[in-house]
Amino acid sequence: MRHVDSFEIQAPTPPSHNGVPRSAWARARRRASRWHRPYTAVLLLLDYGAAALASLIAISAFDQAVSGFQDADEAWFKTVAYVLLPLGWLIMLWANGAYDRRYLGLGTDEFKRVVRASVTVMASVSFLAFATKTDLSRLTVATALVGATILILVARYFARFVLHQVRKRAGHAGHRMLLIGTLPETLEVYTAVTRSPSAGLVPVAIHITDGYAAVRGIETPVPVHSGRDVLTLVREVGADTIAVCGSASAEPGELRRLAWQLEGTGVDLVVAPQLTDIAGPRVHIRPIEGLPLLHVEEPTLSGIGWLAKNLLDRIAAGVGLLLLTPVFVGIAIAIKLSDRGPVFFRQPRVGHEGRTFRVWKFRTMYVDAEDRLASLVDQNESDGMLFKIKEDPRVFPVGRFLRASSLDELPQLINVLKGEMSLVGPRPLPADDGDFLGDVRRRLLVRPGITGLWQVSGRSDLSWDEAVRLDLYYVDNWSLAYDLSILWRTVGVVLARKGAY
């Protein structure tokens, strides 16, 4: 920069990228490959091994598949089973995007693509067998193909588990993000992406668009920059992903030009809209006259899926009560031996659409617990509507075990059978705390659950605001598959006894 006649003249800047396509060979090496390429190599080996193992299991189980072959035919058959078929699996998995780094490590898209690839493999094998009139044991082929699908899914599940552990404990194998937007918007996105370390999204810097004045007196978790060249800043902080937050792209053409600048740099560009806590199935991009509009569908709180949820609740509750009868008897005896009084504890709770019901639980406190509550109010460790103390003196020893193992919640199957609760849903809150105000009322759109998103995300260790956020997220994004996922995660949380007291 130089001064001429008291006017500031900037040195000429190089022309910005105009979006003209360049050769793919000129693209820079992707920063994400530091973790993605070795992880993909591991997946390739696991998938190949799973497909070959499925063939081995099928052939071993049905020896007649190769018993009638001559030596040459048998060698060719085994070459197909152990070499060509597994290679075909890898090709189909690759063609269906099962190795695309955007879908690895998070969400269900990776597993959906594996299933899609398995359908393609099955159709291809069936067509080839029909076209070549190959005499094969249908049972052997079916066992090999279905077995390969299951083994590949299991192998990828454990590979993802290891990846998540690496991200949680070592902080590696993640995406380094530069957040761009106003300070409130970027901080909101920062909070959202750092809630789950296993997601591998690590914000390393913020580039604000509203000037440094917005940062005065505010502590920020990462360094804040303003008025910088984005590409230069990306190189300085070592980011591989740029997240445009909220209204940072309000100026027409700004986001498009940023995308042009990033071509060939190996840096990903993502847009974080202001619609937080809205799951993918409810969000659809529908272009109208070249303008991509983001449509948000209403939550699905009725229909066939909702009916299936209710039927599943009633059937599972009835079967569970029958199978758990001996457990109920044993717990009842233990409670009676620990403290004289009723076996069950019943308390009014607020349910679906504000209706009050009495929840069933095994009693875990001494009979005079309510009388001693007033003297313990100042020791409350919860910041919300529930009273929680980690070392509550009103809980007797057996009750402490029941709480830690969540066995005290089992009688709520009675509430589920009666239609007052569900297996999965927001936790039921006491009815003596007055009317629910503000966003908390939205929880009443669904039945409360024995387990829920808050229970598999920290339980009593969560703050009240975080628990409410998780409950509202469940209400807004409910699905039958999501319920099954929460039930599966509940098993691990109960075994680990995390956040239960």
Walk me through this protein's architecture:
InterPro entries: Bact_transf, EPS_sugar_tfrase. Residues 309-495 form the Bacterial sugar transferase domain. The chain crosses the membrane at residues 39-63, 75-94, 114-132, 138-159, 315-335. The chain has 501 residues and is α/β, with parallel strands linked by helices. The chain folds into three domains: 28-169, no CATH class; 175-276, Rossmann fold (3-Layer(aba) Sandwich), CATH 3.40.50.720; 304-496, no CATH class. Helix content is 45%, strand content 14%. A five-stranded parallel sheet has the order 5-4-3-6-7. The chain is globular, with a radius of gyration of 29 Å. The protein starts with a strand and ends in a 5-residue tail after the last helix.
Keywords:
3 domains; 15 helices; Rossmann fold; Bact_transf; five-stranded parallel beta sheet; membrane; transmembrane; 14 strands; 14% strand; three-stranded antiparallel beta sheet; disordered N terminus; alpha/beta; Sugar transferase; 501 residues
Percent helix range: 40-55%
> What is the overall shape?
globular
Compute the average pLDDT.
79
Strand order of the largest sheet: 5-4-3-6-7
Largest sheet: 5 strands, parallel
Structural class: alpha/beta
Distance between the termini: 65 Å
How many domains comprise the coordinates? 3
